[in-house]
Write a structure and sequence with these properties.
- By secondary structure, this protein is mainly alpha-helical.
- It has one domain.
- The protein is 68% helix and 0% strand.
- Helix 2 packs parallel to helix 7 and helix 6 crosses helix 7.
Length: 205
């Protein structure tokens, strides 16, 4: 069985970022150039941004699923409620009036199963790593998404650059950043990921 959890997800993310940084950014991280980035640097930065975006997306999805599965299992196996359990139930619609009566345990279990199905679909629908999407994933789980303006600005920059290169938007000029500037933005994104991981642990799902 594949192991999961905040520490494992964070280590996998860090490994992926280091690997693609070594391949695409390292050749351009020497002394700063006087002019704008070369075409080679621009393309390598674009490849780096797209791959890092994917790694961050996998991290967020894995972390959300871990909290979700632990929260449901804690009630099903141990009859233990947590902050994440309560948050999931708050985001779950009330049962229909004609629903058959059942035990308290099964009532909560059924509600959690429905909430898990809904949130799992949100995770797998693959809507990226915008701040709004991260909140959509984690707020129902009782997990706060870091709101540090420096970190969120870097995340938004990464999302914008990735979108422009992945979808080849011809209507506007691309945001062009040097390898060094992009490295700094991704470092901020990793800091945000660490904070998000710590928040997931703190809810004790």
């Amino acid at each position: 069985m594949k192991r999961s959890g905040p520490t494992i997800e964070l280590k996998a993310l860090t490994r992926s970022v280091k690997e693609v940084e070594s391949r695409f950014l390292q050749p351009h991280l020497g002394p700063p150039a006087l002019g704008p980035p070369s075409r080679d640097e621009i393309l390598d930065v674009a490849a780096y941004v797209v791959l890092v975006h994917g790694a961050l997306e996998n991290f967020a999805e894995g972390l959300a699923l871990w909290v979700l599965d632990r929260s449901v299992a804690n009630w099903t196996n141990r009859k233990k409620t947590t902050r994440a359990t309560a948050s999931l139930l708050l985001y779950r619609k009330a049962p229909a009036d004609d629903a058959p009566p059942t035990s308290v345990f099964d009532n909560i279990r059924t509600a959690l199963d429905g909430a898990r199905t809904t949130l799992s679909k949100t995770v797998h629908d693959n809507h990226g790593i915008t701040l709004d999407h991260l909140r959509t994933l984690f707020m129902p789980l009782g997990v706060n998404v870091p709101a540090d303006p420096v970190l969120t600005a870097s995340l938004e920059l990464l999302v914008t650059m990735r979108h422009q290169w992945a979808h080849q938007d011809r209507r506007r000029n691309k945001v062009v950043k040097s390898a060094k500037d992009t490295q700094t933005a991704v470092s901020d994104c990793l800091t945000l990921a660490k904070k998000l991981s710590a928040e997931a642990v703190a809810v004790r799902p």
